[in-house]
Amino acid sequence: MLEIDNLTHVYGEGPTRHHAIDGLNLSVAEGELLCIVGPSGCGKSTLLRSIAGLIKPTGGTIKVQGELVRQTPANLAVVFQDYSRSLFPWMSVADNVALPLRRKDMTKQQRREAAHEALESVGLAEAGRKYPFQLSGGMQQRVSIARALAYRPALMLMDEPFGSVDAQTREDLEDLVLKVRGHHQMTIVLITHDIDESVYVGDRVVVLSKAPAHVVGDLKVELPSPRDQISSREHPDFVHLRAEVGRLVRGVASV
Amino acid sequence: MTAATTLTRGGRSTLARARVGKLIRHAIGVAVFLLVWELASRTGLVEWLPPASTCLARVIGLAFDPEYLADLGSTLLAAVIGLPLAILLAVPVGLLLGTVPVVEEMTRAIVEFLRPIPSVALIPLALFLFQPDINAKVALIVYAASWPILINTLYGVRDVDPLAAETLRSFSFGSAAVVWRVSLPSAAPFIFTGIRLAASITLILAISVEYVVGGAGGIGAFLIQASTALDDSAMVDVIAVLVWSGAIGLIVNTLLLRAERRLFKWRDA
Questions:
Q1: Same domain, yes or no, for B31 and B57?
Q2: Same domain, yes or no: A11 and A110
Q3: Using a CB-CB distance cutoff of 8 angstroms, which residues of chain A are in contact with residue B188?
Q4: Are residues B238 and B191 in the same domain?
Q5: pTM of the complete model
Q6: CB contact under 8 A, A78 and B167
């Protein structure tokens, strides 16, 4: 599904030069939910922007479904952390969700229906006519998830999607991601700095080193499903895995 | 009835009362001003000043004066044609300059040179290039009104959130779509402010050209003609036209401000 080979990225040159990613290799299988964790400023967002074709990496290759990424792949959607800036404030919620569907061969009616369906699947069927500023932070992030879902991407990238909401909302949104992935056949790459979250949500957790980033750990998560905020988190495997991921993140952070 | 609803009701009526109180205070201010004016004139304290009551009567009289109304129509027509043309010209140019930094850098010296030139100084040039009728007025209005719109568009586009643009690009939209669907709506409140500033300029330019040309109609021509009268009516006419101009400016600005608040509700949140 996603093949990253020897990815390297350097920002700028001279005194402001920043080596963000160095020789990163990663492959993600079809339908997998991969969580990427790493210390702050380690180049996670650079990695995500490279996959999305929003920046051109200085070295290495990225393939999505066998196709070399040169510009943004058509079958990809991104959910950004900063929902309040990523949603368009001048458009209603429903129009926000329907907007990307203009890229597809759909009539206005089809777009409207798809938007409504996507909003329904994130529990916001009634909010379509509202404007983003009339919703809470958690609800706004649901809208941007709905926008990505309506687009029916093969690959959904999520950049610290729950980094700006409170703890309770965060748990709700984690469960929402687990729920929608069951309904939609898609591969998800979720970037987070929260170790517990990576283990709770992911099928697999990849740990990055501090910048310049490369992969220092790759762990399979085998927790009984369906996952549950209480019981999954007290499962011995969960406790064990989060410790292991934590050690990897710490270890590389303190080097 | 719950405490909460009582509170809202109480709050609302307090608000209404505050608004009425404000209106009353405004009215008192105006009344005092008119009274002082009337007395200053009647007692001979200010000899050249006609009484307020005479002027206000003439203000109302102008509404039924076909000559004045034709002149007013001529001035407003120039503004009504000129402003939309300025918008059509300045918004696309502002979008271009705001989105393509190279073009902005290449034109900056010219813009910074042209912008400070007082538009009224261009009247001779406009009269040289255009017919000294509505054409010259419109040309000058377009020129002068374009600047605030252009500059506001430019700053509005620069202020566009890069993440909003990136979001659209992440759904495979191209640069043109980013300009149309993100830059333009996101800069719209700035552009609208520019238009409001431009609207106040249009009358200034139209009247200035009318002064210079004299015979070509318009409020400016009316004022020139009125002021040449040899009796007291000159001052009364001039003051009455000024009251009209002030009122028109106030009404246009208020309407545009209201529209702004309605259109860009999303911005205050």
A1: no
A2: no
A3: 90
A4: yes
A5: 0.83
A6: yes
Same domain, B87 and B17: no
| Neighboring chain A residues of B264 at a CB cutoff of 8 Å | 90
Same domain, A57 and A163: yes
Q: Are residues A49 and A169 in the same domain?
A: yes
ipTM: 0.87
Residue A231: give the domain boundaries: 2-75+154-254
Q: What residues in chain A have per-residue pLDDT under 70?
A: 252-255
Tens digits of residue pLDDT in B247-259: 999 999 999 999 9
Cα B60–Cα B61–Cα B67 angle in degrees, nearest 5? 125
Residues 6 or more apart whose CB falls under 8 angstroms from that of B171 comprise A72, A77, A99, A100, A103, A151
Residue where a domain terminates, one of A102, A133, A152? A152
Residues of chain B neighbouring A131 (CB-CB closer than 8 A) = 265-266, 269
Residue A169's pLDDT is what?
87
The pair of structure tokens assigned to B194 is 């520019």
Contact B171 A151 (CB under 8 A): yes
- Report the C-alpha gap between A136 and A165 in whole angstroms: 9
Ramachandran sector of residue A60 (left: φ over 0; alpha: ψ -120 to 50; beta: rest) = left
| Cα–Cα distance for residue pair B101/B112, rounded to 1 Å | 16
CB-based contact (8 Å) between B260 and chain A? no
Please tell me the distance in Å from B163's CA to the nearest CA on chain A. 6
Does A54 sit within 8 Å of B166, measured CB to CB? yes
Same domain, B79 and B145: yes
User: Is residue A81, in this structure, part of any structural domain at all?
Assistant: no
**Per-residue model confidence (pLDDT) at position B9:** 54
Q: Which residues of A touch B163 (CB under 8 A)?
A: 80, 82, 85-86
Looking at the 3D structure of chain B, how many domains does it have?
2
SS3 A207: strand
Domains identified in chain A, total number: 2
Hey, is the C-beta of B175 within 8 angstroms of any chain A C-beta? no
d(C-alpha A208, C-alpha A215), whole Å: 5
Mutate to test the interface with B, among A55, A90, A133 (most CBs of B within 10 A): A90
User: Do B56 and B127 belong together in one domain?
Assistant: yes
The nearest alpha carbon in chain A to B162 belongs to A85
Q: Is residue A80 part of a domain?
A: no
Give the pLDDT score at A214: 85
